[in-house]
Amino acid sequence: MSFKSAIYPGSFDPVTKGHMDIIKRSAKMYDKLYIAVLTNSSKRCSFTIDERIEMIKKCTAHISNVEVCTFSGLLAEYAKSIGVIAIVRGLRAVTDFEYEFQMALTNKKINKELETIFLTTNSKYMYLSSSIVKEIARNGGDITDFVPAAALEDIKNRLERNDKNGL
Ligand code: COA
After folding, report:
1. N or C terminus: which one in the chain shows less Cβ crowding within 10 Å?
2. What is the C-alpha to C-alpha distance for residues 19 and 136, in angstroms, rounded to an integer?
3. Hey, CA dihedral for 155, 160, 165, 167, is it positive or negative?
C-alpha cells in the first residue's frame, strides 16, 4: 500500500476544539497529516504566525503522524511540492459551504491531482469559531470548553495582553 499524506490548512487564530476534532479524525485517515498555519488575506489575525504554530505544536505533540508547517504562496502549489494527495477541511454548516466549495474548485483548477476532503464538524462544535472564542475571552468569559487545554493559558494571556494594549 502506498504512503498517503494530506494537508489541513487554516488560520487557527486561535486553534479551537473544533479544529482539534478535525485534526484527530483526519490523522487517523492518512499516514501523515500536515497542519498548515496560514494567513487568510481577508482576516486580521490576533495571534502571530509563530504563536499559532507554537500552540498547535503543543496541542498535537501526542499525535505522532502530524507535522505543523507554514508557507507563503498558494496552497495548491505547496501541496504539490510536498506530495500530499488531499486537502482536509471541516464543514460546520450550510453557511460554510459556498466559501469552501469556491476554495476547493480553485485549488483543483491549480492542481488537478489534488482532492479536497470535507469532514462534517462534530455537532458539539457546530456553533464554534475562533472569533467567538476571542469575543468570549475579551469579555471576561470562560473559554475552557472551547479551546484545547494545552493552548488555554497561551490564549488567555495573549488576549489579556492585547486588551491592555488596546488591540
Ligand atoms: N469546528 C469549529 N470551528 C471551525 C472548524 C471546526 N471543525 N473548522 C474551522 N472552524 C472555524 C474557525 O475557528 C474559523 O473561525 P473564524 O472565521 O472566526 O476565524 C473559521 O471556521 C475558518 O477558519 P480556519 O479553518 O481556521 O481558516 P480559514 O478559513 O481562515 O483558512 C485558508 C483559509 C488559510 C485555508 C485559505 O485562505 C488559503 O488556502 N490560503 C492560502 C493561499 C491560497 O492558496 N489561496 C487560494 C485559496 S482558494
Report:
1. N
2. 18
3. positive
Q: What is the pLDDT of residue 96?
A: 85
Residue 79 and residue 160: Cα distance in Å, rounded? 36
- If you search the block for the grid coordinates 496541542, which residue do you land on? 59
How far apart, in whole angstroms, are the C-alpha atoms of residue 45 and residue 35?
A: 18
Structural domain of 145: 5-164
Distance 13 CA to ligand 1 centre (A): 9
Give me the number of domains the chain comprises.
1
Q: List Cβ<8 Å contacts ≥24 apart for 53-60.
A: 54/154, 55/12, 55/14, 55/15, 55/150, 55/151, 55/154, 55/155, 56/12, 56/15, 56/151, 58/150, 58/151, 58/154, 59/15, 59/20, 59/148, 59/150, 59/151, 60/23, 60/35
CATH number at residue 67: 3.40.50.620
Query: pLDDT digit string (tens) for 25-77?
Result: 999 999 999 999 999 889 899 999 999 999 999 999 999 999 999 999 999 99
Question: How far apart are the CA of 88 and the centre of ligand 1, in A?
Answer: 11
Q: Whose CA is closest to atom 46 on ligand 1?
A: 74
